[in-house]
Amino acid sequence: MIDILDIRGDYDIGTARRSITQICSRLGFNEREVGEISIVVTELCTNIIKHNAVDGKVIVTEISEGGRMGIEITVEDKGPGIADVDEVIRDGFSTKGTMGTGLGAVKRLMDSFEIYSNIKDSKYLRYPFEEICAGTVVTVKKWLNCKLDPYNNDIKVSVMSRPYPGFNINGDSYYVKHLNDKEIIAVIDGLGHGNEAHKASTLAARTIEHNYHKNLTEIIFSVNDALKQTRGAAMGIVVIDKFKNEFEYSSIGNIDIRYVSEDRTEIMMPTNGILGSKVNSIKTYKRFYKSGAAVVMCSDGISTRWDIRNYPGILLKNPAILSNTIMRDFGKETDDATVLVAFI
C-alpha cells in the first residue's frame, strides 16, 4: 500500500503525523516506536515548510521483506535543494526553527536513513536537464521487531506508483517476488485509465503470482490468456538469477526497462503488442549484470527523458531514493505512472 500526502502548511504536518502513526499502530509497532516515528515525521515535514520547499510530499509505504513487516517513509520536494548534505545530517544541526532534533537524530531513530539532494545548476549537470528538478528526497525505514535491514546484502527493490491525477483507481500495477535463487519483478500498464485498466493490470499481477514457478515465456503466455476478456495491458517483466548474475527480461508494449550504472544506460529491447490480444510469439532476452547496477522499469506515465548521469551517487542510496526522484522529476500529469527500481 502506498499513500501520498501533500505538505503545504502546518496543518498538513499534523494530518501526516496522525495518518502515519495510525498505520504504525496497526502494523504492531509499540508505543515508544510510534512516538519515535512521530518525531521523525514532524521533523521531516517541518523542514519542508520552514525552508519554503516547493511541492512537498510524504510517501508512505508498508513494506514486507524476508518475513518482516515495516514502514518506509519518503519526504520529497522540488527545491531549493541542499548545498551541503553532510552538514545538515550532523547531529544537532537544525535551522529555520524546526524542533531542534535535526536530521542527525532522524537518522539515529530509524533503522535506515538515506538522503539525496540536488540543486539546478548547469555546472553540476552534464546532460540535458530542462526537466531536472532541484530538490531533496529523504527515505527512512523502520522494521517491526528488527534493527537491521533484512535485505542489506540482497537485491533491493522499491516501487513508486500513483494513479492518473484526479483518479482514485490506478490503472498500473506491479509485481515483486523474493525467492532464494531469483527475484521476479514486473510493471503492468492496463490500457486506458480507471476501473477497466485497473482490472486488467491487477489480473496480470495475480496471474504472475499463480505461475511464477514457470519459465518466463510460459508466465507471459499465461498472462496473455488471462487478459483476453479484458481491455489488455502492456507489461515489462524481469527474472533476476542471483547466483548466475544474469537476468532475463521481456517487454510487451510500452514499458521502459533500463539497465543502469553510474556512467551508462542500456535500454532493453521492447516487443510491440498488447497482452490479452493475439500474441503469436514472445521474445525474451538475457544479459549478465555487475553488482552495483540497477534495473529500472517505468510505465509510459514516466517520461523517457531521464538520464542516470544527472544524479551522481544516487545508485549508492536506497532504491526508494531513485524511484521517488524519477517520479518527482518525470512523472506525467496525464497518465497513471509507475517506477520500479531493483538494485542488483
From TrEMBL:
Molecular function in Gene Ontology: protein serine/threonine kinase activity
InterPro entries on file: HATPase_C_sf, HATPase_dom, PPM-type-like_dom_sf, PPM-type_phosphatase-like_dom, Ptase_RsbX
Gene3D superfamilies in UniProt: Histidine kinase-like ATPase, C-terminal domain (3.30.565.10), PPM-type phosphatase domain (3.60.40.10)
Keywords: Kinase, Serine/threonine-protein kinase, Transferase
CDD domains documented for this protein: HATPase_RsbT-like
Domain PPM-type phosphatase per the UniProt entry, residue ranges: 154-344
Pfam families: HATPase_c_2 (PF13581), SpoIIE (PF07228)
Histidine kinase/HSP90-like ATPase domain mapped to chain residues: 32-146
PANTHER family given in the database record: PHOSPHOSERINE PHOSPHATASE RSBX (PTHR35801)
Protein name (database record): Putative anti-sigma regulatory factor, serine/threonine protein kinase
Organism the protein comes from: Pseudobacteroides cellulosolvens ATCC 35603 = DSM 2933
Phylogenetic classification of the source organism: Bacteria, Bacillati, Bacillota, Clostridia, Eubacteriales
